[in-house]
Amino acid sequence: MNQTELLKKFGDDDNMISLLPSDSDFQGKKLYNYQGCWYQYKTLRAVLHFKRNFKPLDTDIIVASYPKSGTTWLKALTVALLERSKDGPLSHPLTSDNPYGLVQSAIGLVPFFELNLYLKSSTPDLTKLSSSPRLFSTHMPLHTLRDPLKDSPCKIVYVCRNVKDVLVSRWYFYSRIENKEAGRSILESMFESYCRGVNYYGPFWDNVLSYRRGSLEDPKHVLFMTYEDLKARPREQIMRLAEFLGCPITQEEIHSGAVKEILELCSLHNLSNLDVNKTGKAWDNLDHNVYFRKGEVDDWKNHFTSEMEEKIDMIINEKFQGSGLKI
Ligand code: PAP
């Protein structure tokens, strides 16, 4: 019996989840494998709620990523691009709300499906969303996200990042929220669980490849971006994003410096220095500021041994073979 049939048969999510393959992550936390992805119990329940109850609108926009790949940045850029025609960058909602925001509205500007909306309720009231078009975010792989979307023309933007920087970012994030020193032993055990693919939302490569394939098969509805390209060629990349979102940047805007303004507004330096991000709390009750750190490419070089580099490169090279993706 496959997992969808199991769900139908048991109806009750708790029973179904208890029958799924399970394993433990680097902290010994139990994870369940659903449609090839490892989730914590609460997250998976929310994923199931989402799959059963979400009703897309044609205009919806979904920001997707593997955790620590640039979610916050992409959310900010998406909001900035969509809002620019309404207010102009300077009176922008990002100056008073975090892209995770709970400041202006209870749900925030770009709420996560499974970590916020469907975690709190199996049928959240989406009429309370403040943005138009509605903006959502997720870390689910594309095949799971697509289930309730069916033939909806809504748009999905994905940001991918080098797994080694993802890991280092996750290591610092975890240490910070757990109030621990970012010690080597934490990094090493996280590293092992990433290599096994048994980690929250893992395996990394399956998450990335689901969106990569989706973007090649359906480029009108799925855009695949990378953190590294955003860093190296930000102007080109935000023009690409604007085009995809259906709000292309005009020649006039280019000449008036709007692109530069949006990039500055969404820069790590600017966002992390806004009062709302220095003091505010996010959907998960974490301080907004935990989502901002160095924001650099190749920070892993300061932390990985050559053995770690070799091992993870070998795994990723093998998994990405034939996908056109490079490390
Ligand atoms: P999430 O997936 O848990 O939502 P996400 O925003 O993807 O988190 O990851 C945070 C990373 O993005 C941090 O990377 P670092 O640890 O390597 O520094 C953070 O610094 C970086 N980041 C956040 N905002 C920006 C931004 N505006 N520009 C560039 N990088 C950013």
UniProtKB/TrEMBL annotation:
Keywords: Transferase. Pfam families: Sulfotransfer_1. It is an enzyme of class 2 (transferase). The keyword Lyase does not apply. Its EC number is 2.8.2.-. Residues 58-324 form the Sulfotransferase domain. SUPFAM superfamilies: P-loop containing nucleoside triphosphate hydrolases. InterPro entries: P-loop_NTPase, Sulfotransferase_dom. The keyword Transferase applies. Belongs to the sulfotransferase 1 family. This is Sulfotransferase. It comes from Camelina sativa. The lineage of its organism: Eukaryota, Viridiplantae, Streptophyta, Embryophyta, Tracheophyta.
